[in-house]
Amino acid sequence: VIWSNDSQKIYYQFSDTEKNLNYLAVAKYDGSSEQKVIDLKYLDYGFVWLNNFQELGFWSMPQDASGTKLYAVGLQNNSVSTILDDYKLNDVLSSPNGQYFVYNHFDEEKGITISYAKYDGKNNKDLNYVSTIQKIVWSNDSSFFVIAVKEKETENDKFYKIKVKNGKATVLQYSTEKNQDLISAENLMLSLDNKTLYFTSNDILYSLNLE
């Protein structure tokens, strides 16, 4: 299930194998007044908002690491377009305004790496960082995202701030105490002013100043 921007509607996959029904549905927040949007082919989909909530991105969950395609349905006319068509997408996280999205990209040599693109699939950029969607957080103004990368198992995660307009990457420098456990960041969050990064590691909450 994914909620509309105004929280008045829910979009979800409805599947009934006995009746041969499988489609994207929309209903009111309480589940009433259900309507079919489009038919779906597979049994497990992920959803993200794109293009200022004007389009709903959807992809079938890959059964292995190789990837899948990303599509979008326009909510004004239910028209479907292909965003990424080379079967390299594994998971997606859209920016707050849906103008960009980051995704896990399957690389045969490196494994799962991070890429990002505009909502229509243009300006696609492979960053080659080995990481996951779960170690990324978007800024509240959608101008950048922060990614945690474990480059060596014997070292702390490195944090990179990526500006989406030009792809510029800035390393966020930090230090830890001598006997402190290695940082393996999870649950990344940003303050509303985008100046402070919060994350957990080994069940401890940390903060990092981005400026």
Short summary:
The protein is mainly beta and 211 residues long. The chain is built from no helices and 18 strands. The strands form 4 sheets. Strands 5-6-7-8-9-10-11 form a 7-stranded antiparallel beta sheet, with no helix packed on it. A 4-stranded antiparallel beta sheet has the order 1-2-3-4, with no helix packed on it.
Q: What composes the largest sheet? A: 7 strands, antiparallel
The helix fraction, in percent, is under 10%
What is the 3D shape?
globular
The tally of beta strands, per DSSP, is 18
Mean pLDDT: 94
- SSE succession: EEEEEEEEEEEEEEEEEE
Stretches with pLDDT under 50, minimum 5 residues: none
Report strand order across the widest sheet: 5-6-7-8-9-10-11
- Structural class by SSE content: mainly beta
Instruction: Tell me the fraction of residues in β-strands, as a range.
Output: over 45%
Number of helices: 0
Radius of gyration: 19 Å
The N- and C-terminal alpha carbons lie at a distance of: 36 Å
